[in-house]
Amino acid sequence: MKFINHSSKYSYQYISFTGNSDIATNWAYPQQSGSNTANWNQDSGESGTTVGSTTITLARSFSTVGFTAPYVCDLMGFWGTMRNHNNSNQGHLGLFHVTGSDIWGKTGTTAYTLIAEGSQSFVGGAGSNYTGGCFVDGFLTTPFALSQGDVIVPMVLEATTDKVHYQMTMVIKTPMPTP
Fold first, then answer.
1. What CATH number does the domain located at 10-177 have?
2. Domain coordinates of the chain in residue numbers?
């Protein structure tokens, strides 16, 4: 692993994920081909929403479906939009984390922990139905420190087997390298 000296200046990266899902009441994640696939249809078997303690076990083949931190950086959280295609049921978006060194070269399963979560909301909007576009605020009150090689996997949680559509933009704050 290489280390870079950093200044007190920062750069922000905005990483966008878009998709749809129709998995029942558990967190769903992207297929093995990655988070750029439209349908996130992998059922985690977990429905908890407690940041810091909800965990999901993923096979080694899913270690490449999210974002890998290229440098030491801070996760600021995410902002997104979401709508339920069928009924007015509230959904959630979340980011799950694993330390890179816990998965490098591993052939078994690994636990990923929920580190940022947001619930679909229409507060302050023009309507009051989750079938309309709603915002999802997953910004953290305290940034989450990421080490080089850490992996974040985005996921969606639905209230029922309704189809949901969503977009989320993850915000990363990275110290700028000095020459």
1. 2.60.120
2. 10-177
